[in-house]
Amino acid sequence: MPKASFVTLGCKVNQYETDRLRRDFEGHGFEVVEPGFAADVCVVNSCSVTTEAERKSRGALRRLQRSSPDALLVLTGCYPEMLRRLGHGLDQNALVVPNRDKMDTIRFVAEARPDLLANACPTSAAHRSSHRTRAVVKVQDGCNLNCTYCSIPFTRPAPTSCPAAEVVDEVGALAAVGCPEVVLAGICIGLYRSDGSEGPVELLGLIERLCAVPNGPRVRLSSIEPVHVSDALLGAMARGGRFCPHLHLPLQSGSSRVLRAMGRPYDADAFLEICRRARTVVPGVGLTTDVMVGFPGETEEDFEDSCRVVREAGFHRAHIFRYSVRPGTPAAEMPGQVRPEVKDARAHRLAAVAEEAHAEQAEAARRDAHEVAVEPASGGADLLTGYTGNYLRVRFAGDQALVGSLVRVRVTGGSGGVLDAVLV
Ligand code: SF4
To answer: Which of 47, 49, 143 to mutate to test the pocket of ligand 1 (most atoms within 8 A of CB)?
Structure first.
């Protein structure tokens, strides 16, 4: 059997797409091996959201080339799209598959190395025989919000949505193998709109259909732009059921002046109002976020605004990013580029603020019992872990047979990223 290996960088959508590619190659008779093992085809599904992501994409190609010197190297994802946009060539010998054709990678491989498929014994398309506790399901692609620091609108296709009926079928297949949670992923998921025979279906309609799948998994949104959080969406979340009470709302900055320069469609007060509304309508809702430090022109006062909003919003978790110059974006040309050491210092200070907010939320979480999708934990045969519905990570003692199921726990303490809990 020909062998294939895959390396994925970047977002949940990339992870999902690699998962689909893996199953497609298996369906065409390839054996999928871990990266670093000898393979005939090595695929890198790359990312270009930061300079660091691009460096790692090149590094992955080099490592795969060393571990399989005779393999066909395939590069897909956002990095080659960025190079093409900038008119730069790739300084590594790889077959480039454009993002729009990514799911057809096997066809590109067949054209480049017909001998590999000649030796393969196709099997019926591999399906998700085994499930993960939390299965990512891509429902949307592309974005047209054009934030001034972001290259994604250049590297991914224009906004598209997966047909609602197909998503319902996919979640139905996951329900059939007992998957307890699906994470809906997209580049800008709030733009979701499927125009099928049943008429237009937008994000809330899709969520309601997925929550109605018999014996189906609970449904979590991976991320949603603040401007796409409607009262109807909060209402559906407040009704409980399988729609996880968790909103990942990218803030990016707490300074309204910086938000305007970023081209973000809200100011700091509007963002805080969305958080307040969510807490009022959905008691116990988990709010998480992304915040960027060091955007061009960011002053100490702007940074203090970010700290204030992170405190006031009461996030469970805040991912903190240092601004990374993206060639071809408006922000790359802006004056007042912030020095790396200043970005580092601000990132550390904001992390401390976010940790304080997390500690407050962890304390509040002790009041109630929480439903957790159980995952295996490293560090002992009877240790388990998982996320609550409102996205607190917990660890607790229990039988490994519980992995892949939903259980109820009570938080007993802990700090940092993982809280201690006991089975109820
Ligand atoms: S919303 Fe903004 S940051 Fe997010 S993908 Fe779209 S352009 Fe990029």
So the answer is: 143
